[in-house]
Amino acid sequence: MKTLIKARWLIAFQDGRHCVIDHGQLVYEGERIIYVGANYEGPTDRVIDAPDSVLAPGFIDTHVHSGHRALHKLLADGGRPALFGQPYMDVTIARKGTQIRGYPNYLDKEQAAQDPGITLHAAFTAAELLRNGVTTFVELGGHVLVQEALWAQCEALGIRGYLGPGYDSGRWQSDDKGQLERIAYPDKGQQLFQDALAFIHRAQAHESDLVHGILVPREIENCSLELLRQTVSAADEFQLPMATHAGYNVIEFMETVREHGMTPIELLDHVGMLRPTLNIGHANLISNHPKMNYSGGDDLGLMGRKNVSISHCPINIVRRARTLDNWKAYRKAGVNITIGSDTYPRDMFMNMRTASYHGKVMSHDLSTASAADVFEAATLAAAHSLGREDLGRLAVNARADMSLVRIGRGDVLRYGPIWDPIRSMVECGIGDDVDTVICNGRISMQDGVIPGVDLAALRRQVQEFAEDIWPSLQDWDPLKRTAQEMCPISRCTHT
């Protein structure tokens, strides 16, 4: 079936970059785009007319953690100073001898199979991403059963997932005074690695383009050199992209230097992981960052020379009182910056806007991290990190992944007059402006409705789940804090 879409503005890919076509037209047939331009004259089977919308390439969220994010909601405006603003360490490291409810990553398969939230959270994650115009996402290191649940949602809802069962050689735990220690698994993570490979092999054999595998050693400091080298060998043998968390926390940086005499980025280079299809989660606390006070290192130059990709998660880290040190310097060095949502909200418009504004401030240059730059990060650069030249763009032979964003609707004044639709989306847009999403030629959402998904019911379910989790926080929290003690309900005072 040939589908013609007529849009007020069309963001086409021409001569290696995005450009805007006023009153543009696009035709796709099956899974591929067959025409992009201003006046299609051939026959079609269906016409979608969008006179108040931008037809844009589907966003690619390169840093997703499936779940309800209820625990991260307890970290707004606070957190333990001794953890240097790292949310993962604050709410997902359990007190010794306890287990975190609603967080299956460090459970064995039998334990995780009893978690009632895995299916719910996968459904919530996939639906939220689609609702915000994301057509491809990368899951960074969730439990293999989380990936199985996401696989089912990818096929049911029509969204492309790069699914990476997480593995590591050990993990962090805490004593009842909040002091952290790293504990090694008896087999140094070999079973987790084999489980991940088995899942990825099934994904590679799968006929649909909606499900792919990615190798994800979870955190650099918790992986042995042997496990990292096995990751590189598997990536080479099976032509797989990789992702990990590195340069994400002061503790992780110092632990790696203490143990290996190298920075996390230097360690990745040492084992051969640095390459364009390595997605480093965050990579903002590197040797070049002035807060690290690390003399003689050049992690930025090292990443740039290898054209490494990073998943910059602007909203998540700015809540922790930090940001990417210098967007301009990263790009000048040759680092491929992509954008991820990480925790919440999974709204690429808000994340692009945050990346743009903080990129300007930190670079001390108002022309840096422009709307075009961050839009490219959420599309073309993200596709590059996955080794895909058929995603993140509206061009002939590219995958039919796109969204219609209603920026000219009559009931919204937020946009005002529109001169440049890309700038308007970055500066004024929100995910709720997305009207229609098409992924791999399938209409996955139309008029804000995802077939078979009751968004209101989903929201009620995750609210109920969170309200069941929060009262038991003290059962595993290292300091035995209640939810109210960790995150007091806001009180506004005037003095």
User: What's the number of structural domains?
Assistant: 2
User: How many beta strands in the DSSP annotation?
Assistant: 19
* Strand line-up across the major sheet: 3-2-1-4-17-18-19
Radius of gyration: 22 Å
Query: With helices defined by DSSP (H or I, 4 residues minimum), what is the helix count?
Result: 17
- The chain-level mean pLDDT equals 95
Strand % is 15-25%
Output the CATH topology of the largest domain: TIM Barrel
In CATH, what is the class of the largest domain?
Answer: Alpha Beta
Dominant shape = globular
Assembly state here? single chain
User: Which secondary-structure class do the elements indicate?
Assistant: alpha/beta
What is the rounded distance between the termini?
Answer: 66 Å
Summarize the biggest pleated sheet. Answer: 7 strands, mixed
How would you name the CATH homologous superfamily of the largest domain? Metal-dependent hydrolases
Family: Belongs to the metallo-dependent hydrolases superfamily. ATZ/TRZ family.
Pfam families: Amidohydro_1
Protein name: Ethylammeline chlorohydrolase
Domain Amidohydrolase-related: 55-443
